[in-house]
Task: structure prediction
Amino acid sequence: MVDEVPIVQSVDRAVAAMEILAREGWVGVTEIARELEIHKSTAFRLLATLERRGVVEQHSETQKYRLGFAVVRFASSVRSSLDVVRAARPICDRLSRRADETVNLAVLEDDDVVNIHQVNLSSSRVTVDWLGSYTPLHCTSSGKVLLAHLPPAQVDGLLDGPLERYTPATIVEPRELREELLRVRELGYASTREELEEGLNAVAAPIRGPDGEVVASVSVSGPSYRMEPERLPEVGAIAVEAAAEISRRLGFLGDPHEQDPD
Result:
């Protein structure tokens, strides 16, 4: 039961205060304190903390508060992922049936790949549940796709420092990985051969938003005894087709193989 889970009171109050501001617009400290049934000084400290993080802002004359632009950034991030999932869901279903393997959607979050949607409509339903999980950039097909379409300076930052070796096949040399990323751009898809887990192969293709920027990836993964190395180009090609269709549904009208915008 959710009610049995302990809550952090300060966090609960902060969210409640944000809900009040979302409902009312500009609100004073006294009104917040009254509705939350807390002391006025407590409400002031709460709002001051949220203001420091950009979650709320204070009017210079009235001293009242409203939601800040940080909330817009949070909402934009969630909405973007939801839009991708909504546009991609039927195409991922078809891709899973066509490839007869597991299909995942993924986006870049900080230094990792996060999987936001998974479907397995193949004849073999045994699969790992990657939904909501974070995976490395350098040894996953989705990670390679997302890395390959980032500005070089950002790639340099993400590859700075030693890369973790997960299997004997993991690419841990930055120069070798950069060469791999060039191939990804040339081919239009990325592949991994037992680089994250032994016995697991995958391919992924980039999904572009309306402005041509790569916003996500769609991948097909399966056991190496089914997704053999010689089969990867074939699966890569259908992943590219699926990614292009998802991109069109998101409003991208250009060539999916075009160079990324500066």
